[in-house]
């Protein structure tokens, strides 16, 4: 199993994806099939070409043997003259053994150049052929017995054209196999993309649900294999949405119910504070603690109502806004001093936003910097590609890399935090920014401390 997994990994150690594996499988299958067909084609064609060449050489050598045998019988000329008088017709040369004596038409074709097996078979009275190498070239040697015992005629024919044809054929078949492999891999890539499209839709829907978009659904279609999966996913998400909405409505109702007695307690506390100078000194410290807890309770109720309204599906109220001016007003007010710098690239940018929610997100980030980051050192608005980037810097210890994604969870608080807050501010900020199609992330500030970056698209998706 380990060996198999090792083969499915890239040189960098990353495991190959399913589409890559399917493409490779199609490519290897195409290579195997094309190689098999190429071998069969090469074998059939080469056998045919060699057979045709051999048949032609046998027919020509048999004709020349007949002419030579006739001349020997009639004794019109010597064997040497008879051999030299034979038409070549593409033959390299001929030789014959008559009466135990050898005769040759070319110094290239001598008894020493012929295989002993071929000579033995022809002298024994059998017609034989054999391919030989002469001076680096391929030739076909033909041996045919003559009328007299132990006499034989031999002729050598070049096979350069046949060899070149077979070489060209091998290159063509190799190129075809390579092209077929590439086409097979490409076809596998396309086929896997089509086959995995429902999986991509499932992944996108699951990511949308994980991001809080609980109304995301899969198209059911009429595929008998995929429809049950889509129905099961949609039913599960529907039940999850129902529970979340019910919990959100419950939290909203509880929040509203708490606001009335909370308002009464706050008003009563204010009345007592107005008469604080009349209280005994021993009651003033418990009064301050009670006031602090009531303020913390008020902030908790406000945050719970804010995040519950988002979970309950409250829609955005969009209106055009000069983003730089909106950020400056919210950030400077939250910090209690000028902290905002607007880059020239973003000075005249106008976005369609929900002003209340975007202001709340910026205020929460600035309050977080003021409360937990040692103070906000600056808020910068600038353009970044096709997005507006809003950077909130502080001078605190920063956020460890392993906690940068966790700080946006509900009730998340940094280790060692002793200041007030219930851990909902960053969670609310992320939800408000996500509702605008943007993102918010934590990173390290170049000058030390933490930097929270809001990225808003110029056009909402």
From TrEMBL:
Catalysed conversion reaction: ATP + protein L-histidine = ADP + protein N-phospho-L-histidine
GO molecular function annotations of the record: phosphorelay sensor kinase activity
Domain Histidine kinase: 253-460
Cited CDD domains: HATPase, HisKA
Domain HAMP: start-end pairs: 193-245
Top EC class for this record: transferase
Subcellular localization(s) per the UniProt record: Cell membrane
Keywords recorded for this protein, A-Z: Kinase, Membrane, Phosphoprotein, Transferase, Transmembrane, Transmembrane helix, Two-component regulatory system
Protein name as annotated: histidine kinase
Organism this protein belongs to: Intrasporangium chromatireducens Q5-1
Lineage of origin: Bacteria, Bacillati, Actinomycetota, Actinomycetes, Micrococcales
